[in-house]
Amino acid sequence: MSAESPYRRVLLKLSGEGLMGTAGYGIDPERIREVAEDVALLVEGGHEVCLVIGGGNIFRGVKGAAEGMDRTSADYMGMLATVMNALAVQSALEAQGLHTRVQSAIPMDAVCEPYIRRRAIRHLEKGRVVIFAAGTGNPFFTTDTAAALRAVEMNCDALLKATQVDGVYAADPKTNPDAERFERLSYTEVLARDLKVMDAAAIALARENRIPILVFALGSTGGARAVVEGRGRFTLVS
Ligand code: UDP
């Protein structure tokens, strides 16, 4: 591991949308391969890595509910979508030669391990990449909150939030090119200014447990490792 990196064990949060590449839906194999290459470089750098993956590229509970479905059923569908993404990413990580485990918050014995905290920690200590699927296992939550929760449970040194842009901006830089970009923010500023970093429950959990959040654009090979080792472009929320 690089001597200057204070982040040995990290949790990487990927949104489901980040897996769909240029397609408007589903899983883009090329995009997943890029993500897997980035994770492999992180592991090569001596970092212990776990992942939480969203499901928004397949199904979102809020949308299902807006279309008339019972909200809890729709949320369970969203959680199942994250399991599909987890299996796709697991397969891509294994193609990079990494050892992996998927642990689901909703037990699914034939498909993956159930979430067991101590077992997950053991996997990380052995250099395996652990993918946490099915969010928190509870409706009315998000995978952002699941990411903060698992990062705390795994005693992670940092939570890496991959987004479409290279940090946190005061407004969407895609529609507002003059939007201010922040190098550093406090958790309280993020909450007070309602900045779109992660949802409020996730920020509050990270604040309470003092886990720094590094917001960056996942896309370039080696991007995640550069960020963890302090070389890349990111916004630090701490
Ligand atoms: N979800 C849930 N509980 C959780 C995590 C996720 O009910 O703990 C459901 C929720 O319906 C959500 C969907 O799973 O819309 C997909 O997760 P999310 O929207 O967080 O995915 P992302 O936006 O990161 O792709």
From TrEMBL:
Q: Which cellular component, as a GO term, is one annotated location? A: cytoplasm
Enzyme Commission numbers on file? 2.7.4.22
Which key words are in the record? Allosteric enzyme, ATP-binding, Cytoplasm, Kinase, Nucleotide-binding, Pyrimidine biosynthesis, Transferase
Q: Which GO terms describe its molecular function?
A: ATP binding; UMP kinase activity
| Pfam families with a match to the protein in the record | AA_kinase
Instruction: Cite the PANTHER family for this sequence.
Output: URIDYLATE KINASE (PTHR42833), URIDYLATE KINASE PUMPKIN, CHLOROPLASTIC (PTHR42833:SF4)
Q: What name does UniProt use for this protein?
A: Uridylate kinase
Question: What organism is recorded for this protein?
Answer: Roseospirillum parvum
**GN (gene name):** pyrH
